[in-house]
């Protein structure tokens, strides 16, 4: 039997040499990978260029996305219902704010309007009809069509509720809306057989008389004439029915005013006359003057039932008289201009 002579020292030397080589190679690989990782990191840092966040608030979503794309920014979109359908699709808010410096590739938070959420008929009972009209006119669908319209003529009936208060509605509150809907309403005309005691206007000048009329809300019509010998020019000299009489609230009071004795050359004393439509109940009417210098002066504010309106005025020539119904201008004319 033959024996193999093993040189243990040689084997140990061989193993040690290869082990050192393996360790050296492994360390080299780790160092190499570390260098690559650091290099990639710094390349990434350098490559992420800085950019300024554009102002996209108020823009439509398409325009906003294009502006962000140019800056290499990306949107994160949140939807929100608002009080107006007119802003549907517009950017309401953004974060970060415009002008902020960020790295390219940053996510920009955008809050986008979904417009008005209208899917059921509201409860309008107990509300004022004029306020409801204004509100409904502002609620339109995305196609620009008014979703809810009020059927005219409206049915009015006497009630203990304040005039103009909605008493009944059809469809009922909570009814689903799948398209344009017509709203039928019953509205209060106010209490029946209401009486009022007439104020005493005789002896008042023009501004005080108009102030008293606005405060008491009486139905009225003015006429003017030259003062008689025992009358004071520029004041109310007669009224019919007389002061302190108890009359139905819709009684029209005829008021006679004497012309002023002296009027500045630049001023004009006259009678503003306008034939208004009759209202089912008194509505807010306002008469103002815009003078040539731009100063605005309130002449009369009163709850008025409609019909012929006649109001004296003493204003600089060239002033503009503006008549409004429910804060909406319905007529204007220039003082001194031919009608």
Give a structural overview.
The chain is an alpha+beta fold and 339 residues long. 21% of the residues lie in helices and 35% in strands. The chain has four helices and 20 strands. The protein has helices at residues 8-47, 61-70, 129-138, 206-216, and strands at residues 50-52, 74-80, 91-95, 101-103, 107-113, 148-150, 155-157, 166-170, 181-188, 195-197, 219-225, 236-240, 246-248, 252-258, 267-276, 283-290, 296-304, 307-316, 320-325, 328-334. Strands 6, 7, 8 and 9 form a four-stranded mixed beta sheet that branches. It has a four-stranded antiparallel beta sheet with strand order 17-16-19-20. β19 (320-325) and β20 form a beta hairpin. 16% of the residues are buried.
Question: What is the secondary structure topology, with strand pairs?
Answer:
Layout: H1 8-47, E1 50-52, H2 61-70, E2 74-80, E3 91-95, E4 101-103, E5 107-113, H3 129-138, E6 148-150, E7 155-157, E8 166-170, E9 181-188, E10 195-197, H4 206-216, E11 219-225, E12 236-240, E13 246-248, E14 252-258, E15 267-276, E16 283-290, E17 296-304, E18 307-316, E19 320-325, E20 328-334
Parallel strand pairs: 2-5, 6-9, 7-9, 11-14
Antiparallel strand pairs: 1-4, 3-5, 8-9, 10-13, 12-14, 15-18, 16-17, 16-19, 19-20
């Amino acid at each position: 039997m033959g024996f193999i002579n093993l040189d243990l020292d040689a084997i140990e030397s061989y193993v040690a040499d290869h082990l050192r080589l393996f360790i050296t190679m492994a360390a080299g690989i780790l160092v190499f990978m570390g260098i690559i990782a650091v290099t990639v990191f710094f390349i990434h840092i350098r490559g992420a260029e800085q950019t300024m966040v554009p102002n996209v608030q108020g823009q439509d979503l398409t325009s906003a996305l294009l502006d962000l794309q140019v800056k290499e920014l990306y949107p994160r979109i949140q939807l929100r219902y608002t009080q107006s359908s007119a802003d549907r699709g517009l950017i309401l808010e953004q974060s970060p704010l415009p002008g902020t410096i960020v790295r390219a590739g940053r996510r920009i938070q955008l809050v986008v309007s979904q417009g008005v959420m209208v899917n059921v008929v509201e409860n309008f009972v107990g509300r004022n009809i004029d306020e409801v009209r204004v509100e409904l006119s502002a609620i339109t669908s995305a196609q620009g069509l008014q979703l809810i319209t009020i059927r005219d003529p409206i049915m009015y009936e006497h009630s203990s509720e304040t005039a103009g208060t909605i008493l009944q509605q059809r469809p009922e509150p909570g009814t689903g809306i799948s398209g344009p809907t017509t709203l039928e309403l019953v509205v209060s005309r106010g209490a029946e057989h209401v009486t009022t005691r007439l104020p005493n206007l005789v002896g008042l000048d023009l501004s005080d008389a108009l102030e008293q009329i606005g405060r008491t809300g009486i139905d009225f019509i003015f006429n003017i004439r030259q003062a008689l010998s025992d009358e004071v020019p520029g004041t109310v000299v007669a009224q019919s029915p007389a002061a302190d009489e108890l009359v139905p609230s819709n009684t029209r009071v005829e008021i006679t005013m004497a012309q002023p004795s002296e009027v500045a050359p630049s001023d004009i004393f006259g009678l503003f006359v306008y034939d208004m439509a009759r209202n089912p109940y008194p509505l807010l009417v306002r008469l103002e003057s815009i003078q040539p210098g731009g100063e605005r002066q309130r002449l009369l504010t009163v709850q008025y039932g409609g019909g012929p309106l006649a109001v004296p005025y003493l204003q600089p020539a060239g002033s503009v008289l503006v008549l409004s119904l429910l804060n909406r201008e319905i007529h204007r004319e220039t003082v001194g201009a031919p009608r």
